[in-house]
Amino acid sequence: MNVCHSQDLLQEFMARIQRARYETFVINLASAYEGSRFSLPVLLDFRGRIYRSGV
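Predicted structure:
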C-alpha cells in the first residue's frame, strides 16, 4: 500500500500548476507573434554544425 504525505502531494500539485502556467505563457507568446517573421542568430562552424548565438 502506497502512502503519500500531504506535503508531497502539495509540492507535486504546485509543480504541475507552475508547468501549466509556463506552457500557457509560451502558447500565448507564440500566438501574439503569429504571422510575424523573425530570425534566430546562429553560428555555423566548418563542419556544418549549427550553434545558437547569444542565448
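Summary: DSSP finds one helix and two strands in the chain.
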